[in-house]
Specification:
Length: 230
């Protein structure tokens, strides 16, 4: 039934959630090693969990002042964008990322480029694509991509530009919404390479459209719609 995985944002860094994420991550590695192209996106908390799991250290992250912040991406010099999420961007959209607040960041934890580069476990698995600066001008890594796997981790929120309207600092310009579309389309294009082909009826029975979301935007918490399972 599954052609790819998305680790979402959130707060749960320990306990059962951490253990489940670790098991899923190991299964993704195994599927790719066996020849099935199986992509992973990790956003915000997902980024943090991957760094902790790969490094086998839950204290690898440090505090940053980047809560509810519109920001930019600074691309690492000589970054090759072919075959990765940024390949879909026009030159103008890349320029917007660099010089305008086209992304939303909402994290208190991250990892600096220096701390990352000093860590053999992380550098052997990921390459740094972009960095960003927090409100105190401290630089942290904002996007990484795996060397040998179809995995991208974001310490920013590509999804919120198009779908979350409860917080005023989230960019909603046409170009900012295009950011969401490009990131989503890249994951879908990667998932299409998966070898898994479930029966059509099984797919229909498990689509998210079988469930009704609840509107929560008036609360101003940043989540316009949520799914409540009881």
């Amino acid at each position: 039934m599954v052609n790819g995985v998305l680790f979402t944002g959130g707060w749960a860094k320990t306990g059962l959630y951490y253990e489940v994420v670790e098991r899923i991550f190991k299964k993704i590695l195994k599927k790719n090693d066996a020849g099935d192209h199986f992509p992973l996106y990790a956003i915000c908390l997902g980024f943090e969990l991957l760094t902790m799991i790969i490094n086998k250290d839950q204290n690898i992250l440090k505090s940053f002042n980047a809560t509810d912040q519109a920001s930019t991406l600074q691309f690492i010099e000589n970054t090759q964008i072919e075959g990765i999420v940024f390949q879909r961007y026009t030159s103008f959209q890349l320029y917007l990322h660099i010089d305008f607040d086209a992304i939303e960041i909402n994290r208190q934890y991250g990892i600096s480029p220096e701390r990352f580069e000093d860590n053999q476990n992380l550098t052997s698995f990921f390459k740094i694509l972009t960095t960003s600066a927090d409100e105190d001008n401290k630089v942290y890594i904002s996007t990484v991509h795996a060397h040998s796997y179809p995995m991208t981790a974001f310490q920013w929120h590509p999804e919120k530009n198009a779908f979350e309207w409860g917080l005023s600092m989230i960019p909603h310009s046409e170009d900012a919404v295009q950011v969401t579309k490009h990131v989503a389309n890249h994951l879908v294009s990667e998932a299409r390479k998966s070898l898994n082909r479930p029966p059509a009826r099984l797919v229909l029975n498990n689509l998210i459209y079988n469930y009704n979301p609840t509107y929560c935007g008036k609360a101003g918490k940043g989540y316009d719609e949520v799914y409540i399972f009881t």
